[in-house]
Amino acid sequence: xxxxxxxxxxxxxxxxxxxxxxxxxxxxxxxxxxxxxxxxxxxxxxxxxxxxxxxxxxxxxxxxxxxxxxxxxxxxxxxxxxxxxxxxxxxxxxxxxxx
Length: 99
Hints:
Layout: E1 3-4, E2 11-13, E3 18-26, E4 36-43, E5 49-55, E6 59-65, E7 71-74, E8 76-78, E9 81-86, E10 91-98
Antiparallel strand pairs: 1-2, 2-5, 3-4, 4-10, 5-9, 6-7, 6-10, 8-9
């Protein structure tokens, strides 16, 4: 299943080649959506991989953004997970709205 983030049971990353370096709360996510989380994910294996990040609540929307808040790509959801494709050594910023 992956490793719990920061010792909590609220979020898991289901790949061994990525680590969450930041989790932050935002009052409104992109396009006027309600509150959510911003994650920074770092790919650490030096190989492209698909990261499956699971949450305690089902996400309703997710997107990868740059560090100025501009859209890179909308991300796929799978139940309680967000699927993120990472390139080798990429630091990705992901914005998630939870249900």
